[in-house]
């Protein structure tokens, strides 16, 4: 029986170690999946928001990140003046504008 054990040990030692590519392949696959499912869509949203903020102009009706609806009266480099109702004007950072809504949204919301 001793001669069977030694041949089994010899076969086990004869097997090759996995190649570097096959051991790194799962890690590479996970990075690619994260890129397409998490990182790339977030970069797209950030780019769209930067374009939205860059395109702000006086007269645009917007919704802020806090949920306030108003009309832009003045656009500065870092801040915009937002008229919420007649005589109520606030200043807020340009980046806190969440979305531009169609003209007439303020009138229809009253």
UniProtKB/TrEMBL annotation:
It is found in: Cell membrane. The keyword Transferase does not apply. The chain crosses the membrane at residues 20-39. It comes from the Bacteria. Keywords: Cell membrane, Membrane, Protein transport, Translocation, Transmembrane, Transmembrane helix, Transport. SMART domains: YajC (SM01323). GO terms for biological process: protein transport. InterPro entries: Preprotein_translocase_YajC. One of its GO terms (cellular component) is plasma membrane. It is a single-pass membrane protein. Belongs to the YajC family. This is Sec translocon accessory complex subunit YajC.
């Amino acid at each position: 029986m001793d001669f069977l054990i030694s041949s089994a040990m010899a076969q086990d030692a004869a097997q090759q170690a996995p190649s570097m590519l096959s051991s790194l392949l799962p890690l590479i696959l996970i990075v690619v999946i994260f890129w397409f499912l998490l990182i790339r869509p977030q970069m797209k949203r950030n780019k769209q928001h930067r374009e939205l903020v860059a395109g702000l102009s006086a007269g645009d009706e917007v919704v802020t990140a806090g949920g306030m609806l108003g009309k832009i009266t003045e656009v500065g480099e870092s801040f915009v003046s937002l008229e919420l109702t007649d005589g109520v004007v606030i200043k807020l950072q340009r980046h806190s504008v969440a979305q531009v809504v169609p003209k007439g949204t303020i009138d229809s919301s009253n």
